[in-house]
Design a protein that fits this description.
With about 240 residues, the chain is of the alpha+beta class. The chain has 2 helices and 21 strands. It is about 25% helix and about 35% strand. The strands form 8 sheets. Strands 7, 8, 11, 12, 16 and 19 form a 6-stranded antiparallel sheet that branches. Strands 13-14-15 form a 3-stranded antiparallel sheet, with no helix packed on it. The chain has a two-stranded antiparallel sheet with strand order 1-4.
Length: about 240
């Protein structure tokens, strides 16, 4: 196969991966706490292309993972007493069946036992473990530093943690992240909680739709390159056959 076709095919492979990621960004434009993602590529470490007279100084690119922008999303007012938004860097800590996980999604609710949980039923962690609410103690208030109170009674304090290296966080489903690094999270001193608010996705829908169009056009361009290269090869073979 002609080297130009190999180059075009390798580009199409990365474009398909990028298309999946951009489509996922658009699908999560209204997902609370979602962080926009992008594609990383790298040079294929295997042997490069070759030509009739020897190796060519040509390398291909391949998909090398996903980048994630943890920038602050806009805060929107909901008025819900169990809705919480983090202003600044940090994550809520939750306990799941698979272990400790982290999230920016503050759409919390109460379990039948009175535990503060995520929409998926995972217990939100305080500095001393699960946070249990007693409805008979009155309305719930949560301060900017995470202290949960009912009237004059302090119920607990919501744990908000931060990571020195965010690249160690990996998606774990249900808008949760797992820590895949050896670094342990530390209590966040800069983040503040906002009760009755939620953090919107930081996806810019206009930019993502524009990028979707660019990817589609680039993919079509690579397809035309492959077709044109194949046509040139066909014509060359026909001419060589006529000369012979």
């Amino acid at each position: 196969m002609d080297n130009a076709m190999y180059v075009a095919l390798s580009r199409q492979m990365t474009l398909r991966r990028e298309l999946d990621i951009v489509a996922n960004n658009i699908a999560n434009v209204d997902t609370t706490g979602f962080k926009v993602e992008g594609t990383m590529v790298k040079t294929d470490p295997s042997t490069g292309a070759s030509m009739v007279d020897g190796p060519a100084s040509l390398k291909f690119v391949i998909d090398d993972g996903v980048t994630r922008d943890f920038g602050q999303g806009a805060l929107r007012q909901t008025g819900g007493p169990l809705d919480l938004a983090i202003e600044g860097q940090g994550f809520f800590k939750v306990q799941t069946d698979a272990g400790e996980r982290y999230t920016r999604d503050g759409r919390f609710t109460l379990s039948p036992e009175g535990k503060l949980t995520t929409q998926g039923g995972d217990a939100v962690q305080g500095e001393g473990g699960d946070i249990v609410i007693d409805p008979t103690l009155g309305p719930l208030t949560i301060s900017a530093d995470g202290v949960v109170s009912q009237g004059t009674t302090k119920v607990g304090k919501i744990a908000v943690v931060a990571f020195d290296d965010l690249s160690g966080l990996s998606k774990a489903g249900d808008n949760l992240f797992s820590n895949t690094s050896n670094l342990q999270p530390q209590p966040s001193t800069a983040a503040q909680l906002r009760q009755g608010m939620l953090e919107s996705s930081n996806v810019n829908s206009i930019l993502q739709v524009t990028r979707l169009i660019e990817i589609s056009r680039a993919y079509e361009s690579m397809a035309r390159t492959i077709e044109n290269t194949a046509e040139l090869s066909r014509r060359s073979i026909e001419r060589l056959g006529r000369v012979a």
